[in-house]
Amino acid sequence: MDFREKLHFEERPNDLFAVGELLVDMISDEYDDTFLSSGYTKYPGGSPSNIAINAQKLGIRSQIAACVGNDGFGEFLLERLRQEDVNTHFIQRAEESTSLVVVTKSRATPIPIFYRGADYRLAYTPQLEEALLHSKLVHFSCWPISRLPSRRTIERAIDAAAAHGVRIGFDPNYHRMIWQAGEDGVSYVKSILSKADIVKPSEDDAERLFGPDTPANQLEKFLELGAKLVILTLGKDGALVSNGKETREYATMASEVADTTGAGDAFWSGFYAASIKGYPLEEALRLGFAVSAYKLKYTGAVVDLPRLEDIKSQYRL
Amino acid sequence: MDFREKLHFEERPNDLFAVGELLVDMISDEYDDTFLSSGYTKYPGGSPSNIAINAQKLGIRSQIAACVGNDGFGEFLLERLRQEDVNTHFIQRAEESTSLVVVTKSRATPIPIFYRGADYRLAYTPQLEEALLHSKLVHFSCWPISRLPSRRTIERAIDAAAAHGVRIGFDPNYHRMIWQAGEDGVSYVKSILSKADIVKPSEDDAERLFGPDTPANQLEKFLELGAKLVILTLGKDGALVSNGKETREYATMASEVADTTGAGDAFWSGFYAASIKGYPLEEALRLGFAVSAYKLKYTGAVVDLPRLEDIKSQYRL
Question: Which of A159, A256, B36, B53 has its CA 20 to 30 A from that of A184?
Answer without folding.
Answer: A159
